[in-house]
Structure formats: C-alpha cells, structure tokens
Design a protein that fits this description.
Number of strands: 0
Distance between the termini: 21 Å
Order of helices and strands: HHHHH
Strand content: under 5%
C-alpha cells in the first residue's frame, strides 16, 4: 500500500515537474511510478489519475491568466472538442502508458 501511494505521488509531483521541461516527459514519471506500484491494474488506474492531477496542477496556474480563455477557444475550434478535458485526458493517457511500461518492465525483469 505504501508503494502504491509513493508511486502515485511520484507520478503527480515528478510529472508536473517534468512537464515544465517538455510535455511528453510525463511518460518518464509514469514509468517510475509504475515501477514502484508493480501491479498492472493499479498502475494503470493510478497512472491515469496521477497524470490528470499533474497536468491540472500546471493548468491551474494559467487559469487566472487573461490569455487562458483564448487558448482554450482556439483548441476548441481546431479539435472540435472541449479543450480543458481534452488536455487533461492527454496527460492522463501519457502517464497511463508510462505506468504500464514501468509495471510490465518490473514484472518482466524480476521473473
């Protein structure tokens, strides 16, 4: 249970920190978190939720900006989907994939 919580915290904190460098690096946080969590189902769920929370932490900083609404409306126009949920789901999916890689890699190398 402690490893699950630690893995989730790693995904959220490290994911938010690495996303400041480049948005794709949230996968690395997912890999490390999934390696700590070990269970594939738990790592998938916690990786997805952790990725959403990591990106939500970053987006909440820009939510008070005057340009935030313009960016969301631009994404909405281009994608044809609501922008904020789309952005959060992308972060969750990237982290989920990283967590699955980490958990599967741990199982593959320990057996």
């Amino acid at each position: 249970m402690r490893k699950d919580i630690l893995g989730f915290v790693v995904i959220v904190v490290l994911g938010a920190a690495l996303t400041l460098v480049h948005w794709v690096l949230v996968v690395i946080a997912g890999i490390l978190g999934g390696y700590l969590i070990e269970d594939i189902k738990k790592s998938a769920l916690l990786g997805f939720v952790g990725g959403i929370l990591a990106w939500l932490l970053l987006i909440s900083r820009f939510a008070i900006s005057s340009h935030f609404g313009a960016v969301l409306s631009f994404i909405n126009t281009v994608a044809g989907l609501p922008a904020l949920p789309l952005i959060l789901v992308i972060g969750g999916i990237l982290s989920l994939l990283g967590a699955l890689i980490g958990a599967t890699g741990k199982k593959a190398f320990t057996q």
